[in-house]
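[#protein-structures] MJ: dropping Gtr1/RagA G protein conserved region containing protein, putative here for a structure pass
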Amino acid sequence: MIDDARARLLDTIYAAHRYNPEICIEVFIHKVDALSEDHQSDLLAILQRRVEEEAKRRLETSAPLRLNFNLTSIYDHSVFQAFSLVVQKLIHHKTPYINELLQMLNSNSNVDLSYLFLSRSKIYLAADERNRLKARTYDLCSDAIEVVGKMSEVYRPVIRHSKQDQTEENNKRENLQHSIIHLSEDCIYVQELPNSLTIVLMLKKSELENRALIDLNIDTFYKATYSIFTA
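AK: finished. structure tokens for Gtr1/RagA G protein conserved region containing protein, putative:
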């Protein structure tokens, strides 16, 4: 089965490279959860070496190919993290500025870590988690978005507007979801933003006393991020 998949991959690489020699190809090796970590590393190294060697021979080139291999599984968040890295490569000229904005947000709000997600998926565009040493923080933050989304479908309030207040901007802001999920010592603050973005923060519970400041910093962060994407 692996040989068949490798053959189809080589056909794809050949066709794509003939069309665009500068193309970057992302390869996802799925269902690796059945293997131990050592076997996963061995499989990745062997496949990467064989595919690159055979592709170069078939393309009759010695130049390095732009091939990236990712190990994924349906039993964890690895596939979403891999897709996140691919998306970040597509906006690589904007990502450093957004990461710097997240660092400023964390510093000014005493936040341990922050992620900027696409609201309808578990793909994150930027992250700053320099101050957090705990593992699986991405898993917690991405799951928090899913929990808030599902709960909001059940408990979404019915908001009635007068004709004077029924402006498009007001409606957009009032429909944005936010929630605080309490953990043992920390909490996760999920704030939906306009344009299908969501920011997720992890911070100490004691820092919620400064929530007004955090909300102000989030609003400033969004305005700066929006200007970067629209520049």
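MJ: nice. The longest strand covers residues 186-193.
AK: one more thing. The beta strands are 25-29, 67-71, 113-118, 124-128, 178-182, 186-193, 197-204.
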